[in-house]
Predict the structure.
Amino acid sequence: MPLVFQGLSCYAIRKRICDIRGLIMGKRGTIIGIVVVVAAIAVMIVAFRGNHTSYYYEVAQYYDQIETLGSKNVRVHGDLAQMSEKGDTVTLTIADIDDASKTITVSYTGPIPAQMRNQQDDMKVTAEGKYDFDKNILIAKEMIMECASKYEPAT
Amino acid sequence: MGTLGNIAIILSIIIAVLTGIFYVASWKTPKSNTRKYAQYGVDALFILLTLAEIFLLCAILGHDYSIQYVYSYTSNATSTLYLISALWAGNAGSLLFWAWFASLLCFLLMRSKREDTQSLVAHAMPIMMLVSVLFIALVLIQNPFAPAQQAYTDGHGLNPMLEHLAMILHPPCLLAGYVMLAVPFALALSALIQKRTDGDWVNASRSWALMAWVLLGAGNILGMWWAYAELGWGGYWAWDPIENSGLMPWLLTTAFLHSTMIERRRSGFKIWNIILIVLAFNLTIFGAFLSRSDILKSVHSFGETAMSPVFIIFLVISLGLSIFLLIKNFKLYKTKSSDESVLSVETSFLLVNIVMMAATVAIWLGTMYPFFSELITGTRIEQNKDFFQTIAVPLFVFTAVLAGVCVVLGWKKRDTKSIKKPLLIPAVMAVVATVIMIIIGGSKWYVIVAGLGIFYMIFATIWKWALDVKAGTQNGKVDFIQAFITLFKTNRARYGAYIAHIGMAVMALGMMISTVYPVSTMATMKPEQTVTIKDYTITYNSFDVYMDQLPKSGSGMGNRIHYGANFDVTKGTKFVGRIHSEVMYYRTQGQYVSEIGIKSSFGDDIYISLDNWDDDKTVYVTVKVNPMVIWIWIGGVILILGGLISFSAPVKKELAE
């Protein structure tokens, strides 16, 4: 290749490199921006890997794989079929919404949301906790109620 | 009333479609009759939907139980205030309110007096009509005028849990805030359609976006207050999908309000601004979709309805159109930064945009995680609140420091030397404040880091303000107070923003301390027994059971039976106050509602929830000492006040500054 072309192509490549470098390095703000984006992604990765998750099941799904799931932290959602209170501990029976024959028993000690005492047929609850295989109950650390703010009344 | 309401709604959807078409047809002939008819259409739409709201209100106030909605949300015993709030308390009513508010915005937007925005408005109006059509279509699906299934003499009544002052204001604030974002969104698309790069759309959008931000902020804070006072779990934010749907547009609007300042003053960030408002508005629609569909098993979910396809069609059109226009005009809107130094307002505002966007993306991913995990793995996996806190806290601390730096930097270009001192002095103050906080008891490492950021945000703002006032005294020629007043009066937009910054920092401080340092205990108590928590002694005095008297007549029994326990709180020998905590039973609804006993102070909130009771007056209670919760509400009020002060400033004046 003639020398002049070599020089040209070198120039062209150098210019291209400068362009790219100018794009990345020219703006110090941009560099900081990239650093922040990377930091934000790092925060997200930390958050996603932090195991802040709960497995969510309907009662029937949970009922069918209770053994496989072991004592994983789970959220189980269903109809509140029965509730008995003794002091600050409640024992609940939660039935599957579609198949009422499948139920699980939940024990919960803590502030009982007042709505849980409501006399309604379609009261739905979510219990979050771990299964105790000795007692055959789900020990709930939290009870979540259907939120009232967008509540459609039974008619 | 039902028939009249239905007629008004059906006519309004026809008018909205025609108005949109007439506007498009008159784009090239602004003086034509077609444009005139289009403008009449906007008036007619507003009148029709106002009539629909009036019809519904009359039906509610007149206890017309032949309408299902009136039966479902009111009863003969509902007080007038709650009867009015029933207008938006239910799904169908909230949709009608939304549609009506959209028509009000169109009506106001059309009357925009500024000459330079006329063509912007004309091109924005079809987009606004599209939004109106969406809401009216939803109203037709979930019709508030639908007839009752049978004849009733009394209604089911409003859900007793919603009988709280915050719940009267929370829904309309949020709904209004959501739909108000439609205006800047429509103006942005209008600019894109016209290929206008003059930034007029940004000026025209400022007031709308700022008011939307105020309303969304107020709506979210009211929701937090209600959850804290009424729900009994002692918290105020659960990172529920629907709560997140209210937060995400607010975050992006915050970024938008900052980012547009760069466009207004330095013609930068044009693409950023369009992307921010497109996302903010579409996220509100997406949030409305989430709460009305079952795709996420949210505790707030409305249950399955036929509305989902309407939402999806709208989102596809709205996002598709925005992306198409943006890609088509991308080169036109590309801007070059005028100030590329690290310590510049542009750099810090760019970082604000990135951080807010990152926070929104992360919250969105966390919110949608159950949906995607089920789609991909077949198992629904939910992220709990620790996930969201892991994301929110570091990003907020960074934003707080950034806010401090940004305020100090100001708009003038400055060299590194002259900026060092004003940046460092607030930093020293923040360190001192943090040391005091550590001495008082806040010694966890993440509290110290967050505290430094929050204090820096507060002191930097106050310090900059003080420097401005000092400059305003003109070396002692004007006295300090006079200088302060003059400065404030002539520069409300800026100092309103400073106040909002301080409010946000105060709120964050309250949130941090109350999240990290609450003390809680459960107790079984008989009368006269005490329980000690932190430095407080709680004595259980008595237990009451009583029924409401019927209003006015004083005879007969009302709807509620109260089960209430009374407590005395002392700190050492000092009497702190009396707390009444109760559970009410609503006979008509067959529903129990707790009324938490809270004794607030600038230090601690004593929070007693009555969990259960026995016939012998034994009570089972959860007692919590939540430190500094009151500062969340105080900070919230300051935040909103700051927003309103900024809003009151004329747009042009700030531009000329």
About this structure: Confidence is low (pLDDT under 50) at residues 298-303, 653-657 of chain B. Chain B touches chain A through 77 residues (CB under 8 Å). The beta strands of chain B are 380-383, 519-525, 530-533, 536-549, 557-571, 574-586, 591-595, 597-599, 604-613, 619-627.
